[in-house]
Design brief:
The protein is α/β, with parallel strands linked by helices. The protein has 2 domains: about 30 residues, no CATH class; about 140 residues, Rossmann fold (3-Layer(aba) Sandwich). Helix content is about 40%, strand content about 25%. The protein has 5 helices and 10 strands, in the order ββββββαβαβαβααβ. Strands 8-7-6-9-10 form a 5-stranded parallel β-sheet, sandwiched between helices. A 3-stranded antiparallel β-sheet has the order 1-4-5, with no helix packed on it. A two-stranded antiparallel ribbon has the order 2-3. A hairpin with a 6-residue loop joins strand 2 and strand 3.
Amino acid sequence: MRATHAIVKTIDIVLPGAIGPVGISSTVITDHARIFHASVMFSKILVGVDGSPFAEKALKYAVDLAKKYNAKLIIVHVVLRRFYAVAPSEAGVLATTVFVKEMETEGKEIINKAESKVKGESVDYECRLGQGVPAEEIVKISQAEKVDLIVLGSRGLTEVRAFLLGSVSDKVSHHAKCPTLIVK
């Protein structure tokens, strides 16, 4: 009877992809002494924030990864610009304008809060406040900036808004050209 030995070094993160899982900085040695190195380097990481606890946790992960890989962090909040059945009356336009201004103010507060958490972390970062449909804008920004990874919280919307708009993390993970890390 022959003894077999296998040594496995811990894998920090596994990112499922179209071809298969990729371990970041992982090394696996099997009984046949074959060595597999998979090293994914991130130079730009986009993190979506919406003020939710899940987004705050995603920001922590993104900061940690940006430090580890000396990557630039792009912090994004998207102000929703999708309106259903707005009457073309002056009152409707005025109400919509006021609502948008409130959402923009709230978006700036969310970005400022995220920035305050990143400032002392020795990470190169920039903040962006976008307008539009969040999932679509995050994908557009990720492609324009050629990011290597998108980090999002698994939830952020209320039940009603999620039903109407769909999950941002789900849509981004299906349409992004780069890996997406969804943090629970």
